[in-house]
Amino acid sequence: MNLYLFIAKKFTYKSAPKGQLSRISNVIATVSVAISVAVIMVAIAVANGFRVQIRETASGFSGDITLSAPGTDVVNHLYPVKTPDYIAELERMPQIESVGGVVYRSGILKSAEHIQGALFKGVDSCYNRAFFAEHLICGSLPDYSADTLSPDILISETLSDALGYGLNDKVFAYFVGEEVTFRIFNVCGIYNAVLEELDSKLIIADMEMIRNVNGWGKDMLSGYEIILKRKYKNETARTAFQIENLILDCTPEEEPYTLLPSTVEERFYVLYDWLRLLDVNVLILLALMIAVAGFNMVSGLLIILFERISQIGLLKAVGMKNSNIAKIFLYRASFTVLKGFLAGNLIALAFCFLEWKFEFIPLDAENYFVSHVPVSLEWETVVVVNLAAFAAIMAILLVPCHLISRVSPARTLVVK
Question: What is the pTM of this model?
């Protein structure tokens, strides 16, 4: 057995005489470390939960990557694009789950008492509607598989409440251009994706119906929305770069580029700026919690050093080096730190599980973009954060260990 580890085990607080201060300091230090670790893990879980929830919601509305005419946003009806030949190659990329064409048109809705602007998103039967199926609260998803134009639309609960629409109600929509176009739609379903900024005005409609409103042919689109597979969700920028290179390779030099990609982070930069600000807060909290835990551990270790001053003198008298004696007390402190880490992680994981399961902490969706506190933890993150925090606390504990060099055996050893 390691000699220093063996001696450290003999220096545990259980070996101290009853009533010694090291017993109390050990408990305080353990509780401090446990609370600090729990706060750090919960903060990281919540920040990551916000990131995952908002990213999935934003990408559910417009895809992880959109393809549109250069210099334009996919949400437009002024610059249509035709289906290029390389779409089939995009669909074969390993990162991509689906590629769906969309047609957009802004319009005005009129009810008996209110007028409201809205954005119509025309999709076909092949469009990936898993996101809207997940957030459907009543009715059904519209079916656009028939050859005829479908008047069925899917609207948000926010829009439904604002205009008083219910299932199977008729919606009168006006589209303003060179001429004012009028259409009547039927509400077949209502969804609620919580993200007020996006779902308050978006309406899902038949692609052919919106093409008809825009006066476009069957091969014209506003652009494409690309949904990535789950394990590639964090690689939107890299995938967009690969898509752009593929488009450049497939486009003849004498022809202009028909489509260029943009990521969900670029389209909804305000949301992602808010997430980056949240990450800064988490980093500050992490530093503060490590500092608090380290300070309490330093206090505890100093008490142990003062109580074991005669043993330190004895070890020096038999020829043990200062660095080796420091190892003993670092081993001793690591026992307390590991106990605190174990308790803190258990508390954090229990809290995250309960919040994930029961969603018992509500939030104002208008301000926080979600209806409850979201939590998400990855095992890689748990391991990395624990290792980093443990290393930081142990590094802080090197400071009081320098006091060992000042201990003189002649002064500490008393012959009775």
Answer: 0.81
